[in-house]
Amino acid sequence: MSEQPLPQPRSSMREALEKEDKEKAAAAAAATKEKSAVPKNGNGGNGKNGGGGNNGGGTAAPAAEETTREIQVVREAYRRETAATPAYVMPEEPPAMVELVGWYLYGFCSYFITHLLLPVLFPAIITQVAFPASDFTPDAKYVVKGATCSIHEMSMYQRLTRHSIAIDGSRLSPLGWSGLSWAIGILIAAPILTQAAHHLDRGQYQSLILIAATSFGSFFCLLTGFFKTVWVFLFYILFIGSAIIVAEAVHTRNLGLMIRGLAAHDSGKHLVLRRRAAASQLTLYCTAIGGIGAALMAAFMYHMLRRTDQLTGLWVVSIFSGLIWFIGICHGLFTNRPSSSSPTTAFEPNFFTKLSYSMTLVRYPQAIGSLVAVFLSSFATMCIFTSGTLYAIGGVCIKPVLVLVLWILYFLFPLVSLPLLHPIQIIIRADAVRMQLLGFIICLFVSGAGFYFKSHRWRAAHIIVIALVQSTANGVLYSFGRILLLDASPPGKEGAFAVWYAFVRCTGAMIGFAAASAGPGRAGGSFAAAFLGSFLGIIVLIFGNVSNIGALKAAGHLKGMEDEKRLGMEKGEGMSAVADSGEGRGRV
């Protein structure tokens, strides 16, 4: 059996292609010159009846000028059309082990930023600054559904949900102030992302963007305890929220290039199965590893809340969060995947050109549908997490140690469920759309149960079971939403699609957090909103013409395919096709 040739180094391939382009241009110029030098009558200086010399010379000059003008017009039109378009896309190399380690490490160091730091830690710190425990007089008796709760245990919840921050005559709770700051950070990140998209796909130093964004965001995690005023947290949260969006865009773009490198020698059915196996393994394992970091930070946060000076304890947690996030720059140090496309002309893009390039995604309906699914999944999962946590503390009055157990199980259970789900996905040959449907169905069940039993007193065992099930849904939706969008991304444009993914996912999480924290005492409304979001996600995936194969075709990954039979979709194809199709070899 012949072995497949290894991909050539990108530098040598680029030089070879550029040399070929120069040779073609020189040949075309020589042919044009020869054509303009030949007289129209084809007899050199002696035309027919002896007068061809003057006649031929008279017609050669206008023909040459006309040809030159046509070449200039075509060249100018071609330059305008391809100013931001690659002439060719380099084949990507499979990721090396050190690159995989760095990519997984960044998932470990950054997953908790949007899942714990912004929705949990910062509201707790703002609560200590805006409403210290020494200035708070708890209710003499706190009764929930017939059960009397501890006054000390409910002190944090009451201060967290009380509207104690005055803004222009209105008052916000620490949860509301955190949500507002998060929303402003997302708005600030939007113009940055429009410019970053071009640099990710056309630049040569993408790793510097990751290092700069991570360093910038982690720096503000160190400052949270210096100034004991609520207003300064607006800048902390918006800067951290903007930085994590940019950094996650780079992280997602690198995933797309690694997947393309792992499937560089495949086509048709083999390419589909190879991409499916490699992409799901990378993302599922990265999500599971990220849950470990979130669980560690949750345990550390609980430990520091037991101290007398809770503000200083939470500040220490924020410092460690920034340090761990900063370790993630190793991903940028271990790998640098420069632009895999070569520009057709020497072109210096301006602001509007970069803005136009960042809107490339709107020309791909499959990508738009996958983005809508990403937004709805992020909204539903964050809404369930936030409302479930608030309901467990203030609606069920469970002990703080059980809240810690709840968080640890929520973040650590995907470490078991997601790796087990990967071989099942390969066996049943489920693509990213079907896996997202599975996640939405689980969210639909969890949110529906929360809404239906909102008036009942839940036991700790019920909450733990719900947390285990929902954690799997969160991991599935987080992983396969990214895969589907990258499948819809044309080669060489992963950066433009990745910035949209990061922006939309963070926006959905912010809106889900705001919806759940708007009425902490009314869990039924939050669960109903999550139920609606999950239901709409299912509708979009089923009736929104979103297809994994369609996304690959529209993105140009399956060029030259005549019909779906060559993709292995015909009847009668058994599981033996998987063994020799490259799906198993697509594992990293």
From TrEMBL:
Keywords (A to Z) from UniProt: Membrane, Transmembrane, Transmembrane helix
Coiled-coil blocks: none
UniProt cross-references to SUPFAM superfamilies, sorted A to Z: MFS general substrate transporter
Keyword Membrane in record: yes
Residue segments, region Disordered: 1-66
Bilayer-spanning residue ranges: 103-126, 179-196, 208-227, 233-250, 282-302, 314-334, 368-394, 400-421, 433-453, 459-485, 497-518, 524-543
Biased composition (Gly residues): 42-59
Compositional bias (Basic and acidic residues): 12-25
Ranges of compositional bias, category Polar residues: 1-11
Protein name, per record: Major facilitator superfamily (MFS) profile domain-containing protein
Lineage: Eukaryota, Viridiplantae, Streptophyta, Embryophyta, Tracheophyta
